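--- STAGE predict ---
source: upstream dedup step, 1 unique chain passed
mode: sequence only
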Amino acid sequence: QVQMVESGGGSVQAGGSLRLSCTASGRTFRRSVMGWFRQAPGKEREFVAAISWSTSTNYAESVKGRFTISRDYAKNTVYLQMNSLKPEDTAVYYCNSRVDELNYWGQGTQVTVSS
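--- STAGE serialize ---
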C-alpha cells in the first residue's frame, strides 16, 4: 500500500506560479512512475505530467514549456512546478504512483487561476 500526501495548491492570478508537492510512503518510490493528473469541474481527469524511475519526463501538450515535473529520491517526493499559469489550468490536481501494475492516488489539491 502506498499513501501519498499532496500540498502546494492555492489561488493565483494568471501568469503566476505554484509548486505542488507529493510525498509518498513505502519503499516503492524508487521504482515507481510518478505523475500528476488534473480534473476540472464537469470534465474528466486528464494527464498532466509524469516522471519515470530514470527521471525521463513526459508532458501534456497543454502544459509543455510551462510546467516541470521532478523528483527527490531522498525525500520520496515528486514536484510539479507550474509557471505562466492560465485560467484553464484551474482544477483539482492529483498525484499518481504507478508501480507493480497498481495505481495509487493522492487526495487532490485545488489550484485556482484567476484572470
